[in-house]
Structures are given as C-alpha cells and as structure tokens.
Amino acid sequence: MDHSPVTAIEWADVVVVGARCAGSATAAALARAGRDVVVLDAATLPSDTLSTHLLWPAGVAELQRLGALDEVTALGAPRLTRAYAEGAGFGIGTAFPAVDGIDYALCVRRTGLDGVLARTAKAAGAEVRQRCRVESLVWEDNRCAGVRYRDSGGAMVELRAALVVGADGRRSTVARLVGAESPFLSVPSGRDCYFAYWRDTVDSARHIAAQWREGADLGTAFPCDDGLVLSLVQPPATGDRPGPGAAERRYTEAVARIPALAERLRGCERVGRVRAATHLASYFRRSTGPGWALPGDAGHFKDPVTAQGIRDALHYGRLLAESVTEVLDDPLALDLALAAWERRRIAECREIFHWTNRLARGEAMRPMEIELYRRAATDPELAEITTGIFSRTRRPAELSTPVRATSLLLSALRRQPAAAVFTDVAREIRGAAHEWRTTRTTLRGTLAPASTPPEARSARSTALGEQHV
Fold first, then answer.
1. Please, are residues 67 and 119 in contact by the beta-carbon 8 Å criterion?
2. Which residues lie within the region annotated Disordered (predicted)?
C-alpha cells in the first residue's frame, strides 16, 4: 500500500484507468449519459502500443456507435472489402458480412486510432488526464472506492469514485491491485507473433485482408493507413526468451517459408523494426467485484490469430457503461449489474475463445481442416460461414453440424490416408469434449466471489486516516 502523502482529494462518478480502446469506449458512453468521468493514462497520447489492430466489420460498427468512425476513416486506411484465406493450396475468397450496415474491415495503426478514441471520450464530456500512473486503490468497507495516482508533476492525488474501471491491458495494474491478476482460465498459445509494416506498391490489392497457412506457419497482409501494409507472421512458439536479433530473424524466416506472403510483399519496402509478442496465452480473469470492473484485455484476452481484441474492447466497454450508468449511486444494484455484465461477456465469448485456441495451436493443417478449405473454396455458403465467424455474425458450431461433419469426413477419407483422418477426428472429438466441459464448468458464467485483496481488508481503518495526514 502506498504511504506517500496525498496532496489533493477529488471526486467523480467513475474513474477509468486506461484511455485506449476499452477505456475510451466506457468513458464516452458514461459521459454521454451525464456521468462525471475521469480517465487516467500513464502514457502521453497519442502513442503507439503493441497491437495487430485489424477491425472486422463488427469492430468498425463499434467505432460507428461510438461516434468515432468519421475521424478514424479520415486517417486514410483503405476499406477492406474482401477476405481471403489460403491453406493447403486452396483459396477462400469472400465479401464481408454486414454488421449495422458496415460491410468492410479496417486496419488502422494504433497511434492514430487511440488518438481518435481519446478525443472522442473527451468530446463526450470525459476528462482525460495523461501521464498519470495509478499506484494504489482506495478501499472502504471492502469496496473499491477510488484510486491514488501520481500526476504528470509527480504529486500524489486521491480520486474517489463509485466505480473504478481497469482498462489498462494485459499487465493491468488494477487487476493486480484487486487480486484478479491470476486468470481463472488460461490457455497457452502454440504460436509466437511477429509483425512489421511495409510501404505498399501502387498496384497491390489494397482492398483485401489476406491470410495464408503454409506448414505450421501462418502469415497475413492487411493494408492500413499511410500507404502501408501490416504483415504479421505466427510461427510455432519456441518457448525461448528471444535474444538480440531474434525477432528480425524469425520474422524473415517465416515470411520466406510462406511463398504467397513473400510474393505479396515483393516490391514493398519494409518500414521500421519487427515487433514481437511471445509467450502469449488466452485467458479469462475475474473481471468484477465491489466497485471495480475490468473490460478489454485487462479481464479477457484471445490470441491475436483471430484479431478479436479491439472489437471486444470497444463492445464490452460500451456495454459496461450502459449496464451501470443508472445504478452508480446504489452499491448493491451496481454490483448486480457488474456481475451480469461479466456473465454476459463470458457467455458470448466462450465459443470464439475455443475457436481461437484451436487456430493458435501452432501446427500444420490436419486432414479435416484441409478438407474444410477444399470444400469452402467452391462452396459459397461454407466460405461465408468461415468469414462470418471472424466478424461474429456466425458461430463456429455452424461449421461442425452433424450433416456437414459427416460429409467432410467421407470426403476426407476419399482423398487422404484413413489412419490420419480417423486420428484427426478422434483428436477433435476429445478437444470438443474438453471444450464442452470447460464451457459448463469454468466458463459457465457464474463465478465465486473474488478473494479480498489485503489492501481492502485493512482499508476500513486506514481509508480516512492516512490520506488526510
């Protein structure tokens, strides 16, 4: 617990820690509803952050609901109107399904995107304070009642609020301080992630979001703002801590192992360094408690292989605000609303969580997956379902109905060794059974109360004492 003297005490309805996707969406919705919202961010905005920043139509639709789409569009990222996925020599090309009239994807670099989001929250009426680092929480009667933070001048300030929203990412300070840092479900990724920007060629297909699978490697090309293309590769994870030059080497080697990606980048000039995200794990953390909530990556994270993070941060940040705005003055009603919001996010994200973890295994395509690509290359309905899963307009379960699964199995047996096919099917059955058990136990949507952090247990006697010295 921080014992620095407090130089000022302030009050707000809500304090949001983190001014990026989840934080700005939460703050803007609350401020528009007439609530007094203060947003704290340790960084100077706009600034970059590690992110693959693709928004499927569902994510673009969230920008539209937030009132930020026009300004994001002005950043210059092209509309991505076609999706293309290729594996085992079969290519699947589709249009995007529309979500609230949005039928295109966008890939917008985070410096520009986050700057727009922070300005949108401010325009909605939220106060955004930069270079402010939260160091501890205020507890009163076992409730989170605010934060203590160092402002840009180094002074310690206490900010009291009915709700503290930790929208501060995977390494969330708020999650640590409320005792929710350790996930209640975590699935390590089988892939590492490396990405870089390239100056795109004038004759390239800048309306296509493309992904290729080659052996155990996965690579993408997403045209983005300023005439660039974001190219990401996800080779199998090594488990090693990358040393100097490892990111550059692994990225270059992975691109070379994916001929179609190398061809897409032919004639392009790389801009800047290779960035890396390794030792990834998808997870759910306990995300609500008395007076606190964790939207965005602070509470739930999925491997970047399906590019769901920004959409979910915007979507569930907005829903969090809508859930609590009318009950902030009633602690019991607030806690019930927070718990209902958390259950909703778990219920709605369970299936895409499992789907993402399958794609993140870091292994070569198996017989049934190859057959799915083969069929989808000539079956528009199957191709549309596949693209719709990423946009959250279709469910992964639609790919494995009994009729479709039987048809794919028979087709695979005609083309591939029976032993390999049945081994694959047996593995998928075991995996599906494990996911079913996880969904109905760990992810059943009802959670035991979080453990009370030590700070909260002692807060009743100190909350009014030490900070007024």
1. no
2. 444-469
* Domain total of the chain: 3
Its domain, for residue 336, covers 8-53+109-186+282-356
pTM: predicted TM-score of the whole model, two decimal places: 0.93
CATH of the domain at 203: 3.30.9.100
Rounded to whole angstroms, what are the CA distances from 404 to 92, 113, 289? 18, 40, 43
- How much is the pLDDT for 51? 83
Give the H/E segment covering residue 219: strand 217-223
Number of CB atoms found within 10 A of residue 4's CB: 14
Determine, yes or no, domain membership for 153: yes
Rg (CA), the chain: 23
HSE-CB at 217 with a 13 A cutoff on CA atoms is 20
Q: Copy the structure tokens of residue 391.
A: 């946009």
Q: Is the domain of 196 the same as that of 228?
A: yes
Query: Could you write out the DSSP letters of every residue in 188-255?
Result: E-SB-EEEEEEE--TTS-TTEEEEEEETTEEEEEEE-STTEEEEEE-PBP--SPP-TTHHHHHHHHHH
User: 275 and 209 in one domain?
Assistant: yes
Asked whether residue 458 is domain-assigned, the answer is no
Judgement on whether residues 130 and 42 belong to the same structural domain of the protein? yes
Per-residue pLDDT of 258-294, as tens digits, reads 999 999 999 999 999 999 999 999 999 999 999 999 9
User: Quick one: average pLDDT of 384-400?
Assistant: 93
